[in-house]
Amino acid sequence: MQKNFKPHPNSFKNTFCVFHEVLPDAIEGLKKQFESKAGSTYYYSEAGMYRVSNHWGRLANSKWRLIAREPETPSKTKIGFAAWSEFHPDNAEEKLYYIEADFEKNTVLYQHKNNLDYDKKAILRTSFETTKRIKQIRNLQQLTSWAKHFDEDIDILRERIITELIYTEKTLEEIKREI
Predict the structure, then answer these.
(1) Do residues 49 and 2 touch, judged by C-beta distance below 8 A?
(2) Which value, to the nearest 10 degrees, does the dihedral of the CA atoms of residues 169, 170, 172, 177 take?
(3) Distance CA 170, CA 155 (A)
(4) Do residues 83 and 35 make contact, with C-beta atoms less than 8 angstroms apart?
(5) d(C-alpha 25, C-alpha 79), whole Å
């Protein structure tokens, strides 16, 4: 029988969290403790939270992301787990976020400064500044028209410019001018 562990109802307001997808057997025997109006269900344990949902990202006043299993499970509804220590404070004023780019997978994500993997080298930004930079990086990743005035290989250019966007305060225009 599961011991009923219940966090304070306001513990998740204004938080950032990265959940990792788990298989259904992870919640076998756990008691559903909350169901949202949108249909997500929550299971709490002393180790952390399990969330069963078909939507991830911005949730009311929080930013919760799911890292899917590889290979990806076929169901649109995913089960994510996050330890209590993975919930970090979020607000619009503080510089809480840094950007990570994966050049092999051609992806970009933002992470919280309290992430244990943060190397303290990437520039910290507010959520608004981070969103703006990520949009610029995604345009660089997905479009090619911006590179027509350069003689360098586009993949090398992308990596150089994106790295500068992550590790400096320079604007995109300043970076392009310097190249």
Answers:
(1) no
(2) -170
(3) 20
(4) no
(5) 10
Backbone angles phi, psi at 175, to 5 degrees: -65, -45
For residues 99 and 131, give the distance between their C-alpha atoms in angstroms, rounded to a whole number. Answer: 10
pLDDT tens for 12-42 read 889 999 999 999 999 999 999 999 899 999 9
Distance CA(29)–CA(105), nearest Å, equals 37
Taking Cα atoms as reference points, which of 36, 28, 23, 41 lies closest to residue 2? 28
Q: How confident is the model at residue 1 (pLDDT cuts 50, 70, 90)?
A: very low
Strands 78-83 and 57-59: unpaired
**Tokens matching residue 158:** 């992308």
The two tokens of residue 172 are 């995109």
Residue 21, beta-bridge partner list: 80
Alpha-carbon gap, residue 142 to 138, rounded angstroms? 6
Write down the pTM of the prediction.
Answer: 0.88
CB atoms within 10 A of CB 8: 7
The yes-or-no verdict on residue 56 having pLDDT over 60 is yes
- Give the type of residue at 78: K
Instruction: Report residue 174 as tokens.
Output: 């300043």
